[in-house]
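DATA SHEET
Item: assembly model
Revision: 1
Owner: S.N.
Input lines:
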Amino acid sequence: MKDFGSDKKNVIQANLDAQKIAFAPIMFQAAKSLRNLGILEYLFRNNKATVKTIASALNLSIYGVKVLLEAGLSLELVYLKNNEFLLTKTGYFILRDKMTNINMDFTQDVNYMAMNHLEKSIVNGKPEGLKELGDWDTVYVGLSELPGKSKKSWFDFDHYYSDYTFPEVMPILFKDHPKSFLDVGGNTGKFSMQCAAYDPNVKITILDLPGQVNVARKNIAKAGFEDRISAIEINLLDKTIPFPKGFDIIWMSQFIDCFSLEEISGLFKRAYESMNVDASFYILETFWDLQKFQASTYSLHATSLYFTTVANGNSQMYHSQDILSVIENTGFVVDELHEMIGMSHTLIKCKKK
Amino acid sequence: MKDFGSDKKNVIQANLDAQKIAFAPIMFQAAKSLRNLGILEYLFRNNKATVKTIASALNLSIYGVKVLLEAGLSLELVYLKNNEFLLTKTGYFILRDKMTNINMDFTQDVNYMAMNHLEKSIVNGKPEGLKELGDWDTVYVGLSELPGKSKKSWFDFDHYYSDYTFPEVMPILFKDHPKSFLDVGGNTGKFSMQCAAYDPNVKITILDLPGQVNVARKNIAKAGFEDRISAIEINLLDKTIPFPKGFDIIWMSQFIDCFSLEEISGLFKRAYESMNVDASFYILETFWDLQKFQASTYSLHATSLYFTTVANGNSQMYHSQDILSVIENTGFVVDELHEMIGMSHTLIKCKKK
């Protein structure tokens, strides 16, 4: 692994950062309240305002607006000039940036209560926080039954980080005119349908759990792709069930982060065994060490702990080296590696050795 | 109010800061687990180590140690060099700094669950998070019955920020050889006993709620100060009950942050009415605008939200101007203002106009 980070901060800065961590959940809730109660929106629309003006306009107490905006000063969401508050760029991100809002809602609605069980999840090797959402062994079994806002926040988060990559990968995947795809972990069929729309002749088979396959089939029928996209229910964790053979491309998009390294090894082996020598195996994934922006690495490190505490207790957003080792050990060679698909994805093309 | 903050960050930094906020509760739990599971301690004692070595030494899974340490990289608690992790200064603060640990435990044990009700507390003007700890109107009524770790964490937090200031204020308070103190909100008697120990002739009267007075009386008896320290039960919020008269000094230490500005006005009025022209009124308080370090301001802004959501729903850590206005409106003049008592306190001496 490449070196990462340093200890170059001075003590004053280190102390400030430590206090930011120590009060983090409190200040998170402050930022969320500033957003949800319309205070940031008011500043955005009116450029600047006093506590009193905002309280009156939003029908909130002066006290309430005051403590939130003062927290907003330390959060650097707002600043104070001539007794009036103004929005900062960070405040604008919290107010309007789609990704930031999706991350924040995912943290609150899926993770806030659950994350209180992180330590226990680490010790027990189980997603001990999941019980805050429902009585399942993994979140994947319960996706369609997630309570309240958590369902929307989960799917918004999941889709946001994959949808925007598909247009960019299509020309790469279709360069050699593949006739067939095996979409392993195809979920609700989004990728398969984009493939079918991109190339009028390609045929795709989705492999996934029964719950996901049912949703996928409905979506496929609705889009009129039944003749070219089929879906097979399979327990992907059962190493004794081979993958169907003969596909030009095997595809795993934002999929392996749902599995432990040992499970990934089993999936890659079955992919390998199902492939002809000419077939290609593509992996689209976000690796925390291959990010252009520190913000992306930060988000991935936090997301790993969602897997620990909520999803399954044993997977994560990986370091590229973790996965390249499994690729090599399976008998594949990396044929191409495209960094920076979309904002934070890497596309790896493997061939049989 | 003086201007505070600015909008000078670039967009990259603003985005990073926004993601840090968006994932804050998750990363807080990561930091706490790194501390509680002994991982930071192991790095402190051994200088550096691989994931595997730490996992083996602490009897934790490689996976668990790995996801936590990777989160630790983004939290800048650790850094990675030649495949080994090392502790940073920030990591040391989270591991060993007393204040940081007191803040962190206060956030977790008193505030984590409660703070989920911040927004509702603002809207309703009530500490809606308090029900996570017990069925009381304010936290002060329930202090002696706080459940589990929350009691220790509450008192550790409360005492940490006042105890260390007392030695520094004694020479100032006793400069003119006062014969008597009225210790308003004297709590468990810590300040009064230090006064009694500092000057063998001074007499002190504590005013506080019955619960606190009972504890104070026990402490006073144990210390053998019954002849010079007495305690009176009083509902300090009842404006119709005057303060006892004739004291040389009226003292309010870290007390007014438990009250709304309107309530403080009532307290100051009763102090005023009880004072002779020669008497002095001292206020020892932490004001968020008079801090030397940004870390202190940050902590105070976060602590305000504890008052909003847990303590009483209407008080906060104030801006100095908030309180100076009440002082003036009551008819006092500021005779002396000592900034930076201890690390973050201000001592204000008032006289009747």
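QC remark: The longest strand of chain B covers residues 332-341.
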